[in-house]
Amino acid sequence: MKDQATVGPDRVKILSWPVDLFTKKSLLAFLADRVDSDAKTIVANVNLHALYCLERSPAMASLFSRRNTVVHIDGMPIVWLLKLKGVAATGDNRLTYLDWAMEALAMSAKNGWKVGYIGSMREICEAGIVQFTSKFPNLNMRGWDGYFDMEDEAVDSKLNRTLEEVNAFEPDLLIVGMGMPRQEEFLERYSHRLKYRIAICSGAFVEYLTGVQSMPPRLIGKIGLEWFYRLICDPRRYAYRYLAEPLMLVCLIARTRWQADRPRRRT
To answer: How many CA atoms within 13 Å lie on the side-chain side of 57?
Structure first.
């Protein structure tokens, strides 16, 4: 399969990054269409944390710029920022993976799609596979933990063994849940060596759906307070992301834009 230009929903920009205005229904239909195609597609997502990571990770920025990458909204602040630009984005365009993952797995079981998952600690990964295949008995799903050295490309390395085992399975959906920006950097570096039809950046969804992390009530996500729930439940993990990163993002963007607009010195 070759990487090809991806035809999706209306595409807009936030800062310089692409955003595709999916709804849950259109995203699931898009997945079904791409599985039936002969093109490799990457499904990424954008929220404030992603914008921060994009300013700091050239590999993640490169993945977002690919012609075969689509980017759905995963955070109400992105919807609000787009509205300030005059874009007709709504809460229906905000699609965190927790809101559509189970339906994607149900579709996979119904249609006979193979699903691979790379991410989490080994015990959590295994527990997730057991939970999903118990819920959907026809689901053909395999998993690999995400704890390997991405720099170690030795023939017998855990990285290479993981790539080989994924390719032997040849998943239709390859879900990568390593957190940002590691999951995006992994796909940027190794997508060309992997056999799949759709690769999905999923973050910590297995941890939430297996109960390792407390899942935010779905209603509060639509009003933009999911971050506050996570912060209260696990302040050590999320304090920096939700309290410091937004301020640092503003500084990074201001510095980057100032450097880009600064007149060049004559030599």
So the answer is: 22
Distances from the Cα of 124 to the Cαs of 130, 177, 190, 207, in angstroms? 10, 11, 23, 7
Q: For residue 35, with 0-12 CB atoms within 10 Å meaning exposed, 13-18 middle and 19 or more buried, which class applies?
A: middle
Question: In this structure, what are the phi and psi dihedrals at residue 115, rounded to the nearest 5 degrees?
Answer: -120, 125
Contact between residue 134 and residue 102 where contact means Cβ atoms under 8 Å apart? no
Q: What is the pLDDT of residue 266?
A: 47
* 68, 4 Cβ separation under 8 angstroms: yes
Query: What are the tens digits of pLDDT across the range 27-62?
Result: 999 999 999 887 899 999 999 999 999 989 999 999
Write out residues in the chain with pLDDT < 50, as ranges. 5, 265-267
Contact residues for 245 (Cβ-Cβ < 8 A; gap 6+): 48, 49, 52
Model pLDDT for residues 125-147, shown as the tens digit of each residue? 999 999 999 999 999 999 999 99
For the chain, what are the domain ranges?
2-221, 226-261
Contact call for residues 100 and 27 (beta carbons, < 8 A): yes
Phi-psi domain of 177 (left: phi exceeds 0; alpha: psi -120 through 50; beta: other): beta
